[in-house]
């Protein structure tokens, strides 16, 4: 069985081709989807990629969250389809209320780009099952509106229910509350994070490691996790 993972392109998407490449490197078939369509083409999992959909007007991800395909995404997510939102895709997920909280301008008011250390807080989701809880990984980060916020009651709830998927380690790059870098829904099929795993899937093009420059491929674990999750359901 070849797992088919859709990648939705919105006006202003920048990392859709990178996400498709990451899917292919992981061993799945990437399927290009268009924001104006209502057809998910029977994919087994779905990626909402990074970029600046609709120029980030109003709020980052807020207009894209109203795109025609998002109605299908919400229905499919409710039925258990694995959905990963990366950066702008994460912003779409919170704007669509598929994940709690919100994302605002970085606390230092500047765009930031860095190879970011993350701690895996939840390894039981469709997109994290190839990691270990407590594992430290390095994933490229690039955003201007990456500050995760929620009210104290919501923060306490997602902490108490184990819905924090990733936490920033070493440094908090954008002022996210409680160092939250990514979260999951209760069912574990929807995950959103600000760093870009699709940029750490091929040696020679990823973050630096102690072994060699640009050799980091921690991002492959996200896509391998989705493939494994789909295979388990199919079995």
TrEMBL record:
Keyword Acetylation annotated: no
PROSITE patterns: GATASE_TYPE_1
Protein name: Phosphoribosylformylglycinamidine synthase subunit PurQ
Pfam families membership: GATase_5 (PF13507)
Active site as annotated: 87 (nucleophile), 196, 198
Location of the protein in the cell: Cytoplasm
Protein's organism: Microbacterium galbinum
Subunit structure, as described in the record: Part of the FGAM synthase complex composed of 1 PurL, 1 PurQ and 2 PurS subunits.
Origin: domain of life: Bacteria
């Amino acid at each position: 069985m070849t797992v088919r993972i859709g990648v939705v392109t919105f006006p202003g998407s920048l990392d859709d081709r990178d996400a498709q490449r990451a899917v292919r490197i992981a061993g799945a078939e990437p399927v290009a989807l268009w924001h104006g369509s209502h057809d998910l083409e029977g994919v087994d999992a779905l990626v909402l990629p990074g970029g600046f959909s609709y120029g980030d007007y109003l709020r980052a991800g807020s207009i894209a969250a109203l795109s025609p395909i998002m109605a299908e995404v919400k229905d499919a997510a409710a039925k258990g389809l694995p959905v990963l939102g990366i950066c702008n895709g994460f912003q779409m997920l919170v704007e669509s209320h598929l994940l709690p909280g919100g994302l605002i301008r970085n606390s230092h008011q500047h765009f930031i780009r860095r190879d970011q250390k993350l701690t895996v807080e939840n390894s039981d989701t469709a997109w994290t099952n190839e990691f270990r809880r407590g594992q430290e990984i390095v994933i490229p980060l690039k955003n201007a509106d990456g500050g995760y916020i929620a009210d104290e009651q919501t923060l306490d709830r997602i902490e108490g229910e184990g819905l924090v998927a990733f936490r920033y380690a070493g440094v908090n790059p954008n002022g996210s509350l409680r160092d939250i870098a990514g979260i999951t829904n209760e069912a574990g099929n929807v995950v959103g994070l600000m760093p870009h795993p699709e940029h750490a899937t091929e040696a020679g093009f990823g973050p630096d490691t102690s072994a060699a420059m640009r050799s980091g491929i921690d991002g492959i674990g996200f896509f391998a996790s989705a493939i494994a999750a789909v295979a388990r359901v199919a079995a």
